[in-house]
Amino acid sequence: MGSSFMRHALIAGTLVALVAGPIGYFVVVRRDSFAAHALAHIGFPGATAAVLLGAPVTAGLAVFCTAGGLAIGLLGRRTVDRETATGTILALSTALGILFASMASEGAAAVTDVLFGNLLAVTTSQLWTFSIMAAVVLVVLAVIARPLLFASIAPDVAAAKGVATGALGLVLMVLLALVTTMAVQVVGTLLLFALVVTPAAAALAVTARPAAAAGVSSAVALVSVWGGLVLSAVFNLPPSFPIVAIAFVVWVLATAWSRTGARRSTST
């Protein structure tokens, strides 16, 4: 862990885990898991377009993910409409990604990194970008956390009380887009679901308290990233696989523990 690229990987992974935890909590509570999965794929054509233009991949990801998040939020105010809008935008983005990838033959390695992640290739400039993104996400989330939680748990009641549920949903989509931009570097577009949603699902299996669940979600993401990096270094594996595998194992254990506890309480 003494080399610079491993230090960069550890810092980047930590930043992503810290923001993926609380954002993932709201995504799961609001049943927006499909949107989280879709945003990673929506960012894919942005990344491949950046490769074609010789621009930073992070910039391409950020532009397309943010635009996709805003489109999903604006077109789908209701859950049913949101899933329809998400699926439609996802299909178009996937087609664009395939088109751009076929044109970016010289950037095949960069395209592969977008699909599967390459945490060990994080640069110093990306670390600064991720730090700014993480700070923005955490500050904005701290400001809107209470009304967002209200709007997530009881949207109709929140709207009746004057809470701007639509605006809060848009803000959450933008924050999710920023987290997606960061997380793609860690696990890629194909596996991002495991870093944003799986830790939150594991956390909600063991606690229903919002603050505790968000904290546990971040902790699970941190353990997954740190453990994945260690296993990657020891066994010479690509980091994405052990990171996702650890998150999956934690989710399975948390779900099993939750169901065992529920059976015990029912039997007594």
Give the CATH topology of the domain at 4-189.
ABC transporter involved in vitamin B12 uptake, BtuC
CATH architectural group of the domain at 4-189: Orthogonal Bundle
- Structural class estimated from helices and strands: mainly alpha
Q: What is the CATH C level class of the domain at 4-189, in words?
A: Mainly Alpha
The beta-strand count equals 0
What is the H/E order?
HHHHHHHHHHHH
Range of strand content: under 5%
Number of helices: 12
Helix content: over 70%
Residue runs with pLDDT of under 50 for 5 or more positions: none
The backbone outline, from C-alpha atoms, is globular
Cα gyration radius (Å):
18 Å
CATH H-level superfamily title of the domain at 4-189: ABC transporter involved in vitamin B12 uptake, BtuC
Mean pLDDT: 87
The largest sheet is: none
Q: Give the CA-CA distance, first to last residue.
A: 49 Å
